[in-house]
Design brief:
Blueprint lengths: L1 H16 L1 E5 L2 E2 L5 E2 L4 E3 L13 E3 L1 H7 L19 E12 L2 E9 L5 E5 H6 L7 H28 L4 H13 L2
Keywords: Signal
Organism: Pedobacter agri
Pfam family, one: SHOCT
């Protein structure tokens, strides 16, 4: 009971100093717009063991498992959840002392809900649709540019195009990278 009252006190003090609002949708840094009911595929946890830092146990599951002898990481979800889907139930934004945090309450297929700190989860690829996918498309463009340069060089070496044509086209490809 002491653990529960301590946790309740900590939560109430934090809530008193924070301004929380519920959003109908959220435009995330990965370019996606999320709404309640959307499914998000989890990526890999970002801590060294593959556990999640930005997917935390929430709701009564957190209250009932609270241990005052452990730090906040006790609520982090283990690596076994990698690759699973969660469903967005609520989108909330908290403003406290000038900083804004957006988190999703998500359902993972069991009786407890989880909190997904979405911007951090995207930045660390704890969700599958993260900034890494944008980087991959940039790498694809660079690779295709390299392929173009190789083909252009082959055309020049075979005599199909002149040195001037080769240099002009090569400059265009390099400028586009």
């Amino acid at each position: 009971m002491k653990k529960f009252l301590t946790l309740l006190f900590v939560i109430s003090v934090g809530v008193a100093n924070a301004q929380t609002s519920t959003l109908k949708e959220y435009s995330a840094p990965n370019g996606k717009i999320y709404k309640p009911g959307d499914t998000i595929k989890l990526g890999r946890g970002s801590d060294p063991q593959g556990n999640f830092r930005y997917l935390e146990m929430g709701g009564w599951g957190a209250v009932m498992s609270y241990n005052s002898n452990k730090d906040a990481s006790q609520f982090n979800i283990g690596r076994a959840y990698s690759g699973t889907n969660v469903i967005v139930k609520k989108i909330k934004q908290t403003k406290m002392r000038g900083s804004v945090r957006t988190f999703f309450t998500v359902a993972g297929g069991n009786i407890t809900n989880y909190n997904l700190i979405i911007d951090d989860a995207i930045a660390t690829c704890e969700i599958a649709d993260c900034n890494e996918s944008k980087n991959a498309s940039n790498n694809t463009n660079s690779e295709s540019s390299l392929d173009k340069l190789k083909k252009l060089k082959d055309l020049h070496d075979s005599g199909a195009i002149s040195k001037e044509e080769y240099e002009e086209k090569k400059k265009k490809i390099l400028d586009s990278i």
